[in-house]
User: Fold this.
Amino acid sequence: MIKVLMVCLGNICRSPMAEGILREKVKDRDLEIEIDSAGTGNYHVGEAPDPRSIATTASFGIDISDLRARQFKVSDFDNFDHILVMDESNKANVLKLARNLADESKVKLMLDYASEKNLIEVPDPWFGGEDGFYDVYHMLNDACENFLTVITTK
Ligand code: 4NP
Assistant:
């Protein structure tokens, strides 16, 4: 069983969308992959995703309203094979908690899997409008598709 953890700052905007999108793709393909998400910060622990994230993913037929935010913890390095972070700041915060090279090697930017090679970070849509959430959805959808192809064709 491959285990994948999506990570952003608050675990209410980007990483729950990424979790929902990847879950849907895995379900469609009948794959055995476990998926979770977490935030490096603790500001929103226990909260549902941002209503704009819920609405955006719902418009593509994906329900993420049941997800609840939690904070990234060191034991996540033991429990997951792939830790996909949304931006460089998330990456730095996760790497600060890494205990060894094995932990570090699990951490990748989500957009390392983007089709467009000039995309590096999934922008934080928290302070912007609805459009930002749709942009994030499309980036995540593309990167999740490529990520699945990579991990299932190894
Ligand atoms: P996320 O977005 O990291 O994509 O969940 C954010 C949500 C909340 C905050 C920052 C980013 N915040 O500062 O509360």
About this structure: Residues 8-14, 39, 43, 124, 126 surround 4-nitrophenyl phosphate (CB under 6 Å). The CA atoms of residues 79 and 103 lie 11 Å apart.
